[in-house]
Amino acid sequence: MDMVRFADLVEFPDEAQLPPLDRASLEQAGLSEDQLAWIRDGVLLKRKFIPDDLLDAYIERRAAYRPGTGINRAGWLHGHCYLGVPELRAVALYPPLMDMLASLIGEEMIFHLALTGWVSTQREWHQDDYLNPDFVNTWYAAVWIALEDIDPESGPFEYLPGSHRWGLLRGEKIRTFLTDEERARREPGSGTYQWPKYAERFVTPAIDAKIAESGLPVVPFLGQKGDVLIWHSRLMHRGSRCKSDIPRRSLITHYSGINHRPDMLLKARDENGRAYAVFDMPPDID
Ligand SMILES: O=C(O)CCC(=O)C(=O)O
Ligand SMILES: [Fe+2]
Asked: What pLDDT does residue 136 have?
């Protein structure tokens, strides 16, 4: 088989389906500095955005999670672990953060996924939206929250500013290059589909070639405690390789436009009225 190209895996959806700030026809007069940065870079970096008291309560709870022996680097198994961890919800649903997300995506956002590892995912270059059902159409954003000064050797988050204007990787297109077995397989513990893992064998080279020809610079996010980086679901990013065993203490949270998740049937609100998704399966948090 010929090498799969980035162009074979992407689509340019009709702009009427996209969040307002992604529409070429948008009138930019009257937008905020933050919204303009988002349009330009596909990321928004806000220093000292989350108050220490919220972070400290979460850090204490997370640090106490040590199943088995020793330090737990991987974090909780489930993306919906926040259902059992109110300290996590308090950070993820911090009202100024939720308001900021809504102003970038164009509608109220619902929180539905947390990554609590204190180590890089070491996941290769990707966009987030292709893991979603197609109807999400990039009404989606994720937030990287630094819980301490991030060490350059710890495998920081890296991204390519401006890459959110490239084509949109589509799960449906990617899956056509997989076998039926690869498409169907799920992880035994968590039940998550494994296809993105198999797809890396051709998605990663296709993206690498696209990056090389783009000439865009790779930017690491070396945040300090309370700094947040919000990124676009079409932005190329990765968890870079660990160059030491220095921990990387962060919290990563993912959100969708509340009207773009008909698949998330159970929605709850916290005491500030902020939305998060509830799932039937109880999270494994002990
Ligand atoms: O910082 C990392 O390890 C990458 C995380 C990531 O790709 C994600 O949460 O979507
Ligand atoms: Fe990602």
From this structure: 96
Confidence of residue 1 (pLDDT cuts 50, 70, 90): low
Confidence (pTM):
0.95
Counted domains in the chain: 1
Q: Is residue 263 part of a domain?
A: yes
Question: Do the beta carbons of residue 98 and residue 228 sit within 8 Å?
Answer: no
Tokens coding 64: 């106490």
Nearest CA among 110, 52, 105, 113 for reference residue 81:
113
Ligand 1 mutation target, pool 43, 111, 112, 121, most atoms within 8 A of CB: 121
* Residue in this structure with the two tokens 């990787």, named with its chain if needed: 169
Q: What is the pLDDT of residues 202-233, one digit of tens each?
A: 999 999 999 999 999 999 999 999 999 999 99
How far CA 241 is from CA of 123, 157, 223, in Å, comes to: 8, 9, 17
Q: Find the ligand nearest to 254 CA.
A: 1
- Tally of CB atoms within 10 A around 171: 17
- Residue 100 sits in a domain whose CATH number is 2.60.120.620
For residue 116, the tally of other CB atoms under 10 A from its CB is 24
User: What's the confidence (pLDDT) of residue 69?
Assistant: 60
Is position 284 within any domain? no
Please give the C-alpha separations between residue 30 and each of 26, 27, 119, 141, in angstroms, as whole numbers.
Answer: 11, 8, 40, 22
